[in-house]
Amino acid sequence: MSQEQYLGNPLLKKSNVKINFTKEQVEEYIRCSEDVEYFILNYCYIETLDHGLVKFSLYDCQKKKIKIINENRKVIIMEGRQQGKTTTSVAYILWYTLFQDHKNVAILANKSSTARGILSRYQMMYENLPKWMQQGIVNWNKGDVELENNSRIFTAATTAAGIRSQSVNLLYIDEAAIIPNSVADQFFTSVYPVVSAGQTTKIIITSTPLGYNHFWKFWNDATNGNNDFFPLFIPYHEIPGRDDKWLEEQKRQLGELKFNQEVLCNFLGSSLTLISGEAISKMSVTRPIFSNHEGLDIYENADPQHIYVTCVDTAKGVGGDSSAFCVIDITTIPYKIVAKFKSNEISPLLLPNIIYQVSKTYNDSYVLIELNTNEQVPHILHYELEYDNVVWIMKDKGMQTVSAGFKKQMKPGVTMDKKVKRIGCHNLKSLIENGKLLVSDADIISELSTFIEKRGSFEADEGYHDDLVMALVLFAWLITTKYFKEINTVDLRKALYEEKMRQIEDDMVPFGIIDNGLPPPDVVETSEFDKFLLGMD
């Protein structure tokens, strides 16, 4: 709406118009400015399907939400579908800009049109305020509102450039989980730190869950006390009228998957994932002890007595797929991921230097590199940087295997062919689901939740990436080789066998001792099959 058009809107107060307040209006204005809940209940209107324009009658859970937003600088709210999360936030923003001067509010969504739709709710509420309570209008259009008290509300999409160079006092991000991961990473890296750095700035993030993405990471960190956000979950049953009958109807309409996600607010990954959804849901995120902007996260410092393996998945360094590596402590079972690196901008010419620095830190860890994308990385690492612990691969009867010596046709890395990937995926599933490889990195958990079966193999779901997972697939393949047993005293097959036997014994019903005349179990010869499982010669 142009300036000429909004000046003709009879519902809006023009700028520079003086109003003679009555004593009652002054008292009411002061009370509203001091009590946001009172203001919303008495002066905010919303449009409903059944009754049209009505006063906003806040539910108890919405009153709690308003109070928490008002008393905390950073709030992350998780709610199910159609619970009024956006409308409640807009009502708060109306109060915030109406009764405070010089406040800039940014309303962000995954699309500009969605953000403008949220602003239209603000404008509808504003138009239905009595004029003596309104601020004069300076600017009023689909994407921007400026009030006479120098407060302003504007909209943008959640991109790295969405609110760049803008001064923001309150940042509202609606349905944050819908924002694509690639866009969200750029946005939170470039914009979020600027807003959060202020002493009085406020950030409100609301969403329904949508997989193990950036919203899940923020929520997980908030609930574990690893960031400054106040986490608020409002379950469906706190909304009046949502009883068992309503629940069954929603389950029938939405189906099991969407019902669990959009009504029960469960974080769910893609279907047909390599790692079971149950195993992923039990994973929890640990905060790194060190992180840098280049993509390195460290969870444990090197122990001089421990043995480490670094597995590297390479990329071209021009955006898109990332070069990634994981450093795994293989000294004891369960194995632990102690560091990880991921970047889609690092050049293959610079990646060897990062691998070198990190691997040297971890006691000259053994380095296994995937060769499909770029063979420069291992050659620079071994020949130019003179790193000795690169894992070399040779072919034996058509199978790739690790070479402990120097033989013809050896390569300083592994080619990710069908056999390597099949073995690695199968073993990775066993390691994680049996608790033999601990995963507590948010990026890895997110990738595992979208690493799905496609065309008889496994890869990232459409729109997602699997660079860190593929580094773990390399590791899972490596530990099946004879070479791995030579560099590590831990016998994984023996550990898995003993664990399986304990499970069988725990599940058995106790019974009395029967003398069958056979020798005791400890003198029975070990079968050839058991010898294989135990790694015995």
Average pLDDT reading: 86
Gross CATH architecture of the largest domain: 3-Layer(aba) Sandwich
Q: Over the alpha carbons, how many angstroms does the gyration radius reach? A: 30 Å
Q: Could you list the spans in which at least 5 consecutive residues all have pLDDT below 50?
A: 509-516, 518-537
Number of strands: 21
Number of domains: 4
Counting DSSP H or I runs of 4 or more residues, the number of helices is 19
Taking the sheet with the most strands, its summary is:
8 strands, mixed
Highest CATH level, the class of the largest domain = Alpha Beta
Strand order of the largest sheet: 5-6-7-4-8-9-3-10
Q: Provide the structure class.
A: alpha/beta
What name goes with the CATH superfamily of the largest domain? Answer: P-loop containing nucleotide triphosphate hydrolases
Portion in helices: 25-40%
In the CATH scheme, what's the topology name of the largest domain?
A: Rossmann fold
Q: Tell me the fraction of residues in β-strands, as a range.
A: 15-25%
Q: Give the termini distance in whole angstroms.
A: 83 Å
Which outline best applies? Answer: elongated
Helix and strand arrangement:
Elements: H1 3-7, H2 23-34, H3 36-43, E1 45-48, E2 52-55, H4 60-71, E3 74-79, H5 85-98, E4 104-109, H6 112-127, E5 137-141, E6 144-147, E7 152-157, E8 170-173, H7 181-190, H8 192-196, E9 202-207, H9 214-223, E10 230-234, H10 244-262, H11 277-281, E11 290-291, E12 296-298, E13 308-313, E14 323-329, E15 335-343, H12 351-361, E16 366-369, H13 376-384, E17 393-396, E18 399-402, H14 418-433, E19 437-438, H15 442-448, E20 451-454, E21 457-460, H16 467-478, H17 482-487, H18 492-507, H19 528-534
Parallel strand pairs: 3-9, 3-10, 4-7, 4-8, 8-9, 13-16, 15-19
Antiparallel strand pairs: 1-2, 5-6, 6-7, 11-12, 12-15, 13-14, 14-15, 17-18, 20-21
